[in-house]
Every structure is written in structure tokens, then in C-alpha cells.
Amino acid sequence: MKTLLSVALGVIAAIGGFVDIGDLVFNAQAGASVGTPALWAVPVGVLGIMIFAEMSGRIVAVSGKPNFVLVKERYGRNLSTFTLVASLVLTVLTLGAELGGLGFVLNYFFDVSVNFFVLVALFAAAAAIYFLPFGGLERIFGYMGLALLVYLAASIKLDPDWGEIGRGFVPESHGAAVYWYFIVGLIAAALMPYEIYFYSSGAVEEGWDERDMKVNRANAFIGFGLGGLISVAILVASAQVLKPAGISPDSIGSVALVSQVPYGETGLLLAFIGILFAVGGATIDTAFSAAYNLAQHQGWRWGKRFKLLDEPRFTLSLAGFLLLGFAIAQTGVDPISLTEYAVIFSIPVLPLTYLPILLVGNDRNVMGKHVNGPVNRVLGWAYFGLICLLAIAAPVLFVWTNGGG
Amino acid sequence: MADTAPFRRAIRHYPLPMRRRFIALALAAVAAASLTACGGPMSPDELKRSIETLESTAAEGQLLAGDVAGDRTKATFVRVPSRDLGDVVVHEAEKLNDAEAEAEGGVAPTKARAIELADRISAALGRIQIAPDSETEGRTAEETLSRLSEQAAQLAEGL
To answer: Contact at 8 Å (CB) between A169 and A29?
Structure first.
């Protein structure tokens, strides 16, 4: 039971990672455009992140090394710097989109101005980061984000064709480029690099050691599993509500509307609370991930477990990334498009992020008795191959389908 | 990659000012070609995509208006998305208005109908934006938007 209750790190990493502002709309678009035949892509992506998150948590428990320390150790100076720069660009762009998304969500409640609420979101995120302990951040944003489970209830209440849903979990050959665009996007959304940066650094923040293997497995499988369940539920409910009406959702309001149809005002409020905390969680994930990566690459002292004022370089970079994200959000760029671009163009960075985890996980000299077993090895390399394939296919499909449009 | 060596060898025979003129002319030709590719009359496919946006927007407005009619939503939530949907429709109408369309044998009549539809969708969305807590306005807007969404679908199918 104690293990079950300690899955907040996995929940916030998953909810902030693949049900963030862009992915919420992307899942709804997949449901509205392709419908349930796209469902199989979600478990494929979720299984991949579970395998790599479990591996990275295990590496932290054994060696105390988070992801970017591995990147620095395993790559040469040039490649590790390239990985750092690419990951920082993508993470900060996503951070800007999340802050912009928070502005939109709060404006739905109060109808003042999106830019004003982006400023409110910046102060709220900064205050939460400064005042709350790491465990408090995980629990508040992770567990409150679970209000998104209203989509699971909605998808059941909308009385879908269960046979059709079952068939949706079986991959099928399909000629339409738009179908493959959504398949690739759904898999990639589950594997966003900043989830793994946050998860492995979070494991260090929580001080995991070899006694925490169970907690790591519970976080990787239950936390990311819950995120995947929410993705599936949004897709199914959108296929029920939006697809028959011919609606192509392009805002977070359209996603909220999906839960309003079966549950009225209560459904709407639960959806918005879930969206607010999921997007807030993504803001925290991305801000910390950017600062963690930079600090780990530069060899600075880092972490929320220490007093922030005692680590000026880490704290200043955290504040700087938040301000950069705010500046991006204030340009008025559409946060949904921005995260969709980030998902698609993060895919080329994925192999560079995941390879060191796989190499260290397979290294008996580092891992000792906790080295990857045969199943983990096979699945790890299979997913690494898939990630390399996605890295080539994603940008091509994005251009070919005009962004799924 | 094309072999540009013969071109580079040939151009070296000319004095520098003339070479600059060649390059300027080449750049102007590329710019003109790009502009030609962007312009021209609106194709049926482009018009169809635009009308499908109107259809989707009207359908989403209908869903929203249905919840207003059934008193199943919050006023601020209705106001913000109905305004956003209205903006989408107005922007689409502006794009349609600015696009060239051949009068004879072209898509001009359909384009004019699409602009008219956009205008009516925008007006219906305006009703729930102004009175998001009126069930009567919600019901009227729901019926109107349902009709307009169907008309947009028929218009797009005809292309």
C-alpha cells in the first residue's frame, strides 16, 4: 500500500509529459480525425516509456546518476553539448507552450485576458517551485491532474462500441498518411525526452537507492499507466463526441467540451481542474528538466532537495528558463501548435536521450545484479530501433500531411 | 547535387559588376516564380478545406449552444469559446473574400455562398456569446448552427 501511494513521481512525469496542453488536443484530434483505429499507438508508446523510465530509475537507485550525467559520460564533448542544446531548445519551447496553455485555461474560468493569466501562471509556478518541497509538487500536480480521469468515466458513459475499441488496439495496415501521422505523434508524445530527464532527476531528488526498486517499478508502471489510460480515454471520448459531428478540435475548449456532453457543468469543471493541474505539472516538469540538464551537464550542484538560495547557478537557470518560457508565451504564439511542433521535432533528439540509458542499463560493471535481464535488453533495443525509425518518419509525415490537417 | 562547375567557370569570364547583375537577375526570377506559385485563382480543393473549417466550427458551436439550451454549462466557458469560434469564422471569411476566383467555370459562386454562410455562422455564435445564460437563445443558436453546418457540408461535397 505504501508503494502504491508513492507513485506521485511517475504520475506527474506521465501526466505532465503526455497529457500536457498540446497532447490533450492531439489526442482529441486523433479521436476526431482517425477515431478508435489509432488506439494501439498509445500502449505502444506507454510501454516504451515504462521500460526506459524503469531503467533510468534503476540506474539512479544503483549509481545515483541521472540522465544527463549519463549523456555526458557516454558521449564525447561535442555530442553531449549538441544533445544539451537540442534538449534545452525543445524543453524551453514546450515550457513556453505550457505557460501559454495555462493562460488559456485560466481565461476560460474568468474571461479577462490570456496574457494576463500567462503572467499569473508564471508567478504561481515560481511560487510553487520556491515554497513547495519536491514531494509536495509531485503530489499536488500529479494527483490533482488525475481529475482528467473524468474522460474515462465520460468514454464509458457515452456507450461506445466495445468491439470497435477492442479492434482499435490491434495495429492495422493503412494507406492514409494522416493515419500514420497520428500514430507516430501518439507514440512520440509518450516518449517526450523531458519526461525521462524529470523522472531520473526526480529519483535523485527523492534519494532512491537499491531498497527503492519496488517504488521505481510502481512509479514506472502505475504512474505512466495512468497517463496512458487518460490518453486512451480522451481519444475514445473524442471519437464518440467530435468525430460524428465532424468537429476538428483545435483548442483546449474543444477538449473540455467532450466531457461536458455526458456530464454537463460537473464534467466541464472536472475536465478544467484536471487540465489546469496537468498543464501546471508539465510547466513544473519542463522548467525543472531544463535546469537539471544544464546543471548536470556543467557539473553544478543542483536539486530541490537543497536550499535553492544555496545553489545560485541552478536557481538562476531555473528562473531564467521560466522567464524565457514566459517571453515565448507572450509572443502570442499558439501553444497547441507549438507543442505539436515540439513533439514532432523532439523525435530526432529521442535516440540521443535514450541510448545512454540503454547502454548503462546493460552494463554489468555499473549495474551489478540489477543489470538489464534478457527481456529488458530485447525490449530496450527493439524500442530504440522504433525510436530511430520514428526519428526519420516524423518530420516527413509532418510535412506530407501539413501537420495532420 | 547538380554539378555547378561549368556555370562557375563560364561566369568567371565576365567582369564583377556584370556578375552581380546576373545574380540579381537570377534572384529576381526566383522571387517572381515563387510569387506566381503563391498567387492565382483559388482551387476547388482550397475552397473545400475552407468550407470544411466552417462546417467544423458550426458543428462545435452547435454542441456548445446545445449545452446552453439545456442549462448544462458555465456562462464564462460559453463566452470565451464562442468568441474564439467566431474569430475563426471571420478569419476564414476574410481569407475567402481576399482569394481570387474565376467568375466563369470557376469556384466564384461557391465562394460567395461560403462567405454568406460564414457570416450567418458568426451571427449565430454571437447570440450565445452575448447571452450565454439564455436557454431560449441557446436553443435558437443550436438549431441555426445545425442547419448551417449541414449546408456547409453539402457545399463542400459539391466541390
So the answer is: no
